[in-house]
Amino acid sequence: IFSALDKDVDAEDHGKGQRSPKLCGTNYPVSIAFIVVNEFCERFSYYGMKAVLTLYFIHYLHWDKNLSTAVYHAFSSLCYFTPLLGAVIADSWLGKFRTVIYLSIVYVIGHVVKSVGAIPDVGDSTVHVVLSMLGLVLIAFGTGGIKPCVAAFGGDQFDEEHVKERRKFFSIFYMSINAGSVLSTIITPILRGDVKCFGGDCYALAFGVPAALMVIALVVFIAGSGLYKKSPPEGNVLVRVCKCIGFAIRNRWNNSKKSPKRSHWLDWAEEKYPKRLIQEIKMVFRVLVLYIPLPMFWALFDQQGSRWTLQATRMNMDFVNMNILLESDYHTAFHNIIFSIQFFLFIFSPLKKMAAGMILAALAFCAATVVEINVIKSVVEPPPAKESLVQVYNLMDSEVTVQFPGHTVFSDPLKSYEDPSGYTSLPLTGEFQLYTVTVTHNGAEYQCGLTFTERTAYSLFLHTAQPGDTVCKLVKDHITKSETGAAYLRFINTHTENINITVGTEEFYAAADYGISQNISVPRGEYNGVVCKTNSDQYLIDLGLLDFGAFYTVILSKESNGLTFKKMEDIQANNIHIAWQVPQYVFITAGEVMFSITGLEFSYSQAPASMKSVLQAGWLMTVAFGNVIVLIVAEGAGMEQWTEFLLFAGLLVAVSIIFSIMAYFYTYVDPDQLDKIFREDTDDEKVESSDGKKNEAVSLTDMPKQTKM
């Protein structure tokens, strides 16, 4: 590393450094190969880590969904604020090459710290949280800091006359970004879920592999050091713009009463700054005003990695069936939408396409709302304050009736060994309440004193201890579905011997005479030949399919022909297939194509060449503030998920209307006209006209206009 930095200093001392050899007789420098590979590895590193981040918060750090979502978007926001810092460091102090190396080292350290924090044996939960947050902060500074440098550094490798080759390089560069992100979001979830370490999902490996890729990215970038063109820092235009704006504001404040009014508030900077710079800043401000509504689009777009990921965990993830659906039903939709995108791209102006992209993103959240409404039908929500949930299992030899004093929660008789009808809400007078429950069986009444606690779910098991006697057993239930799609399973043993049951890799123990095992999660799958051992014998039972997200209670009984069982479904399996998320992903992807690519194209077309980095910084800020919006809503709104989705869709529709109105009144300009206007005014001073008067400073109204919106 230090050798590369020494070469960098020597190269800067000689101006641009050595010329890079070309690839196979073309005009493409060999050095760009190192830059493209570096970007692929870095994007793999970033998106691979981020793909499992929300689930890591929930399953490893044991945070709730709202906190996990908030921290996820706070991290994403920081990743888009820090590019400003990276740009200032590169242009004003270190140069692009050294900035990439130094901040890549910070990046690698962040990954290592994050991976160590995911090892269960390292410290307690507080240590894990501290290491995780420290790692994420370092990663945010690393990835954000190098973001504005790598692509620009790649562009610097080309000679000025090789414009066509530079354009193709950027296409290849962004292909490497997409390739890295796609591969990482496939591979790292597999590493997390399919590889087991430390007795559970291997988050340490899922974070460790991206860390290794970032090390490779750094090594590859340094390896090309001797081939790069390295330009010394030339001053940051963003800093200059801020100074000009600050001077204009101060000058106007100090002299507004003494001096005559000026046509634009930025004209108050003319005493110190060139008129051309002032005009360029005016052009940038006209575009930045249009950026004001844009964060709302990113607020929706970036929820793919948080809220939409959590939605997917409560769906049926049978990928075999999903492939069938994709091959039959969705191909037509894909083709139609892609055709529509191409149609819009060709016939509409940039601002209209951006507004259309917002509408598509809003439609994506409408689709997500419909999916969410159906998903929650198979979810049992925890009871609120002063309420409990209860379901009753009748393990008697005939039907029974159950009465809670003052309530008719179970008005119909319950048949013997019938699947429970589901959880029923039981109102309480306070945090706790004692109910005297009356059970009627074969004409005889029995009373049970049962204490219920608010915000808790229960199962009430009714069985006979001896002829003529009824036993009420109240058991607290776990009702939160697994975020991994696993099924929950418990056994009730009516046999007179203790039973040990092995289901896959999980061991269950149910004591004799209506003993109840622990409720343990098992991966979704077919379970045939389940071994049940007693002190005197061994039995095999076929449980069949334990489906995604379902809760099962299995009643074991000893009969003359061996051990029999009855499988009951306490909570419904995830019955909405994950393929139903495809429409919302299609809409949001189509929206991004319309919005993001077009937005960058529009921004660059409306800004002078010297101000493109300022607009890039402004564009990245819209992404950062979009994530801040999600952070605020996730922590403060307290809505049901489907209503939150609908809120975001409605807000984006409202914002798109505002943006459309702003766009309607926007007049396109040609920044190249500045060169013509200032061609004979290179010293930025007023030129005397033939009649002895001075020309006034040029304004945007003097520039050639194009059509609106």
UniProtKB/TrEMBL annotation:
<feature type="transmembrane region" description="Helical">
    <location>
        <begin position="171"/>
        <end position="191"/>
    </location>
</feature>
<dbReference type="GO" id="GO:0006857">
    <property type="term" value="P:oligopeptide transport"/>
</dbReference>
<keyword id="KW-0813">Transport</keyword>
<keyword id="KW-0472">Membrane</keyword>
<dbReference type="Pfam" id="PF00854">
    <property type="entry name" value="PTR2"/>
</dbReference>
<dbReference type="InterPro" id="IPR000109">
    <property type="entry name" value="POT_fam"/>
</dbReference>
<keyword id="KW-0571">Peptide transport</keyword>
<feature type="transmembrane region" description="Helical">
    <location>
        <begin position="614"/>
        <end position="634"/>
    </location>
</feature>
<dbReference type="GO" id="GO:0015031">
    <property type="term" value="P:protein transport"/>
</dbReference>
<keyword id="KW-0812">Transmembrane</keyword>
<feature type="transmembrane region" description="Helical">
    <location>
        <begin position="355"/>
        <end position="376"/>
    </location>
</feature>
<feature type="transmembrane region" description="Helical">
    <location>
        <begin position="69"/>
        <end position="88"/>
    </location>
</feature>
<feature type="transmembrane region" description="Helical">
    <location>
        <begin position="646"/>
        <end position="669"/>
    </location>
</feature>
<dbReference type="GO" id="GO:0016020">
    <property type="term" value="C:membrane"/>
</dbReference>
<feature type="transmembrane region" description="Helical">
    <location>
        <begin position="203"/>
        <end position="223"/>
    </location>
</feature>
<feature type="transmembrane region" description="Helical">
    <location>
        <begin position="582"/>
        <end position="602"/>
    </location>
</feature>
<feature type="region of interest" description="Disordered">
    <location>
        <begin position="681"/>
        <end position="709"/>
    </location>
</feature>
<feature type="transmembrane region" description="Helical">
    <location>
        <begin position="100"/>
        <end position="120"/>
    </location>
</feature>
<dbReference type="InterPro" id="IPR018456">
    <property type="entry name" value="PTR2_symporter_CS"/>
</dbReference>
<protein>
    <submittedName>
        <fullName>Solute carrier family 15 member 2</fullName>
    </submittedName>
</protein>
<feature type="transmembrane region" description="Helical">
    <location>
        <begin position="283"/>
        <end position="301"/>
    </location>
</feature>
<feature type="transmembrane region" description="Helical">
    <location>
        <begin position="126"/>
        <end position="150"/>
    </location>
</feature>
<comment type="similarity">
    <text>Belongs to the major facilitator superfamily. Proton-dependent oligopeptide transporter (POT/PTR) (TC 2.A.17) family.</text>
</comment>
<keyword id="KW-1133">Transmembrane helix</keyword>
<dbReference type="InterPro" id="IPR036259">
    <property type="entry name" value="MFS_trans_sf"/>
</dbReference>
<feature type="transmembrane region" description="Helical">
    <location>
        <begin position="44"/>
        <end position="63"/>
    </location>
</feature>
<feature type="compositionally biased region" description="Basic and acidic residues">
    <location>
        <begin position="687"/>
        <end position="696"/>
    </location>
</feature>
<dbReference type="GO" id="GO:0015293">
    <property type="term" value="F:symporter activity"/>
</dbReference>
<keyword id="KW-0653">Protein transport</keyword>
<keyword id="KW-0769">Symport</keyword>
